[in-house]
Design brief:
The chain is mostly helical and 274 residues long. The chain folds into 2 domains: 41 residues, no CATH class; 197 residues, no CATH class. The chain is globular and about 60 Å long. The termini are far apart.
């Protein structure tokens, strides 16, 4: 038979050249339905298997993938971007990416006062350079839709510092990136699920759930920090292992903030994306 994908002649269930299934039939209603059911019910490999494994055993799942046991797992970058689309679509729908929900002028005033050693209240402002304030406010408003890209770029910086601090660890830089991409993707998924829960809860009650929301958010982020600590944990150097991961996290975050500030102050750069 001849492969319908690459035209290679072969006699087997799968093409030895490209891996195409030899039983690739024309798509009809029945086959479409079967594929849909398989997608949502097959928990032995692929997306749902990966979600289950990252939830139950996140460290071992990453180790399995890095050590070559990959047939059952959804690829890390596909997983991250699929979850990221879900997460950012969700927060956009809920209004978290709407720049109109941020009082940038108030934030700038408070920052200005704190920098002068005042209490931080906008009422104590005496003479704020309004032109500079307006420029920063406009820049920050433009930054809101692009925060997700910096969020992703941060993973590569974090992985770099982890490699620098754990030079003797058996995993290389690219493998560090894969581990962080898997974990961050799963953190976004958990965060998205929590946003749905808290949004529904806020509709059902008049109680103030902001403290609960913030607490869970902090715990989710601490969970992301815990994973690389566990991954690189050395029982012979306990304090050193934990300290290096925390330092790598802090340094990568500082660099991200500096990058955001740099681009915020160079607003013409953002106009290229308009």
């Amino acid at each position: 038979m001849q492969c319908k994908n690459c035209s290679t002649s072969f006699e087997a269930n799968f093409c030895p050249n490209c891996g195409q299934n030899s039983n690739a039939k024309r798509i009809d209603t029945l086959s479409l339905w079967q594929e849909l059911v398989k997608t949502f019910t097959n928990l032995e490999h692929g997306l749902f298997f990966t979600i289950k494994e990252l939830t139950i055993r996140p460290i071992q799942t990453v180790k399995n993938y890095l050590e070559g046991k990959r047939i059952n797992y959804f690829p890390p970058f596909k997983y991250f971007f699929l979850v990221a689309v879900f997460y950012f679509a969700l927060i956009s729908l809920l209004g978290y990416l709407d720049s109109s929900t941020y009082d940038f002028e108030e934030v700038y005033k408070q920052s200005y006062n704190l920098g002068r050693g005042d209490s931080g209240s906008s009422d104590s402002v005496e003479a704020i350079p309004s032109k500079t304030g307006q420029e920063i406010e406009a820049a920050l408003e433009k930054m809101v839709p692009y925060l997700k890209y910096f969020y992703f770029a941060w993973l590569f910086t974090f992985a770099l510092f982890l490699k620098l601090f754990f030079k003797k660890h058996k995993y290389n830089y690219a493998e560090n990136v894969v581990a962080l991409v898997y974990w961050m993707g799963h953190v976004l998924l958990i965060s998205g699920i929590w946003l749905i829960i808290i949004s529904i809860s806020q509709q059902l009650t008049t109680a103030d759930l902001s403290t609960v929301d913030e607490t869970i958010g902090i715990l989710i982020n601490l969970g992301f920090l815990f994973l690389p600590i566990k991954f690189y944990y050395n029982s012979q150097r306990k304090v050193s292992s934990v300290g290096k991961v925390i330092l790598a996290h802090a340094l990568s975050f500082i660099i991200l903030l500096l990058l955001v500030v740099l681009i915020t102050l160079t607003t013409p750069f953002l106009d290229l994306f308009q």
